Amino acid sequence: MGCPHCHGPSKFQDRRDKTFLSLMGPILLRDRAYYHCPACHRGSVPVDAALGLDASRLTPGTQEIATLAGTVGSFAEAAEKLLPRMAGLRLAESTVERTTEAAGERLGELWAAGHTLGTAVDWRWNRDARGRTVAYASVDATGLGIQGPRGAKADGRMAWVGELFNPRPERPETASQVHPPAARYQAGLMDLDELGERMRRQAAQIGMDRAEQWVALTDGGAGLDAFMDVFFPRAVRILDFYHAAEHLGDLAKAYCGGDAVAAEELTERWSHRMKHDGGAAILTELEALDLRGRTPAAQEEHRLTTGYIRNNLHRMDYPRYRAEGWQIGSGHIEAACKTVVNQRLNQSGMRWGGDGADAVCHLRALYEGEPSQWDAFWERSIN
Q1: Does the reported pTM lie above 0.85?
Q2: Distance in angstroms (rounded) separating the CA atoms of residues 1 and 343
Q3: Rounded distance between C-alpha atoms, residue 338 and residue 16, angstroms
Q4: Does one domain contain both 344 and 277?
Q5: What Rg, from alpha-carbon coordinates, does the chain have?
Q6: In a domain? residue 122
Q7: Is the pLDDT of residue 175 over 70?
Q8: In this structure, what DSSP letter does residue 121 have?
Q9: What is the Cα–Cα distance from 284 to 276, expressed in whole angstroms?
Q10: What is the C-alpha to C-alpha distance for residues 140 and 160, in angstroms, rounded to an integer?
């Protein structure tokens, strides 16, 4: 028999029994033929491979349910509460952790190898005010607590989150038909180039190339403009309006000193001007501010805010974006950072090993996206 690992000849050794835990309870497989490869020194059991079983003692169905529980809740919660109640399974916390992280690593390997999951089907893209189908892309990062060797505290790391989405129209009254929203995510401790390649493959699978208009929404973080240049060059770049408004609020607070009411009123006025007249108009107003008598902190905040707006003017034509019926806020990707990553990986006191965090990020991104993606991952042809 050929070795499934190195494809060299394997030699029959003996027959062995093994008990697997299924969703219906323990299953004993008797007289399983065991082969050993003298070349790579690894063993194999053909009947296990035929049944989709691996070296663990869990059937594929049990692995999926254990992984689902470990993806939705903490490993302890999954072992102590979710699995006993959902499926009558009693697994150790360590078993849930190993099973979940192994599935996440397998998913990451699929993404890295250039795979997509499920069938290629064009999304029913919603239309803007001019009747064009519009596809959105967004990217952001969120911090994770990382555990060093032997449980020592280590510097945190940033997990990238990418989203492809089809939101409801900004101006639904202009659309003849509104399709349900949809989203796909990628997340993990990867670099931006790797994230972009994975997002582009998913974009091709959902028919993004056939959408008439692309929009890229970001908060203006370092490297994101270059990222969009490479992976979504057709996209109109829009700076998140609310992120820009926060900068205006910081300047208003510094400019008004301790007068909170005046600062709030000024923030509202500046934000209104920016939304209705655009970035160039608000920059002109801010540059004309009289800073005489203001504190050094206020003058520094003014320098930072005007510099930020000046650097992002090409993405701040909000009157045009609104007239076109496009989204101007990056709330979708901010919500994705919370739901995909933070709700699971940033619970109180959590610290992760890098590989484990990366694996669970992959699973969370899959789970929070279209249900068909999760189902496709657990098909036997994939596993």
Answers
A1: yes
A2: 48
A3: 47
A4: no
A5: 26
A6: no
A7: no
A8: -
A9: 14
A10: 6
